[in-house]
Each structure stands twice: as C-alpha cells, then as structure tokens.
Amino acid sequence: MLSQLRPALSLLALMTLITGVAYPLTVTGIAQLAFPEQANGSLVHDAKGEVRGSALLAQNFEGPEWFQPRPSVASFATVASGASNLAPSNPALAERINKEAHRLATEGRGPVPMALVTTSGSGLDPHLPPAAARYQIPRIAAERGLPAEGLVRLVEQSTERPLVGPAVVNVLALNTALNEMTR
C-alpha cells in the first residue's frame, strides 16, 4: 500500500506546486509586465491622485447633479453582483423600471433610454450608451448652472469607441471629468 501511496502523494505535491504556485505566479508576473494598469484594477484617480474607483465597476452617484449609471440590483455591491433574474412578465420588474423612469424623466426629452432603467447582467456595468448620457444633460446643466453645450462636449470627449462593439461612456470617468470641469 505504501508503494502506491508514495507516488500518489508525490504527484499531488508536484501538481499543487505547478498549478497552485508556479502557474499563478507566472501569469501574475506576465500580467504585471504586459498590462500593469488592468492587472492592478483599472483604478480611476482624481486630480489630487486619490483613487475614486475602478473603471471596471459601476458606482452609485447620489443626487441629480451627477450622471447616473445603470441601476444595480445589488446596490453596487461587488460581493452580491448579478442580475435580478426577473422575467419580463414579472410585475416587480415593471414596477422597478417605472419607478426609475419617473425618477430620471426629463420634461420634453421623450422616453428615458432603456440603459438607464434596466440592469446589466452583472449589475455593475460601468458603461452607458452615449445617448443615455446625453439624455441626462439638461438635468445636470440645470442643477449645476452649466451650459448644456459644455456637457455635450464632455460626453463626446468621454465616449470610448472600441475596436469591436458600440461606443460607450464610462460613468465614473465622466463624473470625474465633470467634477474637474466645475472646480
């Protein structure tokens, strides 16, 4: 029995070292060298150099003077991230969407864009379509006493156009730029 147990334990120890130590350290080292910003969380800093969040995660912004991200079922908590899993026929989903739509509705702007009232699959998507960001401009301009044209330019400057997929606006980066613009 010992003759069978010893090779099995040796193989277990070897595989643990390879897959549990060597491989993770190698991948982490390569990531740190090749993509240091992404490997360290894609942190967003303000003008003072303080960390304000991650470009990969949505954050809640309280108050009408800020661009609002997509809603989050998990209240923007990363531990409990995920979709609501409510079916389109569920009255609770319709009630939540109506409540968000009434909260964000801007007179004379038409219906609230779906991206502002529906959650993403993770509940933490930091991006909005540019149209959803532009929809919020009249409210923010009125709250901050800023010209709408300046906010339109800010949204345009903050729009990311990836190689694949639609154009998006990172709400945290946009609000950071808005904060710097009003200082």
TrEMBL record:
The keyword Ubl conjugation does not apply. Keywords: ATP-binding, Cell membrane, Hydrolase, Ion transport, Membrane, Nucleotide-binding, Potassium, Potassium transport, Transmembrane, Transmembrane helix, Transport. The keyword Repressor does not apply. One of its GO terms (cellular component) is plasma membrane. It comes from the Bacteria. It is a single-pass membrane protein. GO terms for molecular function: ATP binding; hydrolase activity; P-type potassium transmembrane transporter activity. Its main location: membrane. Belongs to the KdpC family. Part of the high-affinity ATP-driven potassium transport (or Kdp) system, which catalyzes the hydrolysis of ATP coupled with the electrogenic transport of potassium into the cytoplasm. This subunit acts as a catalytic chaperone that increases the ATP-binding affinity of the ATP-hydrolyzing subunit KdpB by the formation of a transient KdpB/KdpC/ATP ternary complex. The system is composed of three essential subunits: KdpA, KdpB and KdpC. HAMAP family: KdpC. This is Potassium-transporting ATPase KdpC subunit. It comes from Metapseudomonas resinovorans NBRC 106553. The lineage of its organism: Bacteria, Pseudomonadati, Pseudomonadota, Gammaproteobacteria, Pseudomonadales. The gene is kdpC.
